[in-house]
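Question: Now follow the chain.
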Amino acid sequence: MYYGEIISIIVAMMWTVTALCAEVASRRIGQLQMNVIRMVASFIILAFMLWLLTGTPIPQGMNSEAIIWLLASGAVGYLFGDFCLFSCYVLIGSRMGQLFMTLAPVFSALAAWALLGETLNPQAIAGIVVTVSGIGLTVLSREEKQDGHHRVHVDIPLRGVLFGIGAGLGQGVGIVLSKVGMGLCEATPMLPIAATMVRAIAGLLGFSIAYAWKGDRQRMRQGLHDSRTMGAAAGAVLTGPVIGVSLSLLAVQLAPAGIASTLMALTPIFILWPSRWLFGQRITMREVLGSLIAVGGVALFFL
């Protein structure tokens, strides 16, 4: 039975729900406020899980060097990457944001080459070219109906594109930094959860400082009392950092990492129809083709 493969597809579906919920909440409450809520909730849930599984909410058995690498991973992946991702959701939507997330393996490969000395083989280089081509096809070829007779080209805001690239960069580099940190942990119980919690600490501290400096407190108060906003935020937390991440770790254990990673990268495909239904966003054949090409590029990295 292909349990790992099935779980990988479920993870892609979970991350689809995460992206849609995050877009709704970020548009209503703001990306900074949303990230603060998400990181607080994630930290509490991860601490509770660690307490249930190990008897203490504090990660055990990590040396200072490992903690530094994991904190750096959290700063890059959560603070920088997620801020860019949620800003991207607000500017150009979760559908395009998830497409840019296919750049994460590209930046992971480049970071592993720069930091770990891993070789970029021809297949990985081909994956980079194919992934970027798929994104380029989608970004540069969008059209939208102006009236019943004409179609006009609609340019995606440059800031949205830059935030999308930043999201892929933060995710990709954060993964490599996390890999280094976890490799330095010799006897850490429930390592994936413990490592995720340390990364979450960096994100929580960073977003808390940013919120204290620049956060919109009135908007935060309004969001906390709005059931739709909090429902969307809860959905983003549960299906992302909690269920999604946990299932992704299980999927990699039960299925070959390459197959699992490729199946989990199907989110840009899965999100097309829900985004049309929820937000009324028109789907073009070029967007479908571009998403398929980008996911195909991701597959080249792992298969």
Observations:
- Residues 143 and 154 are 6 Å apart (CA to CA).
- The first helix runs from residue 3 to 29.
- The two ends are 20 Å apart (CA to CA).
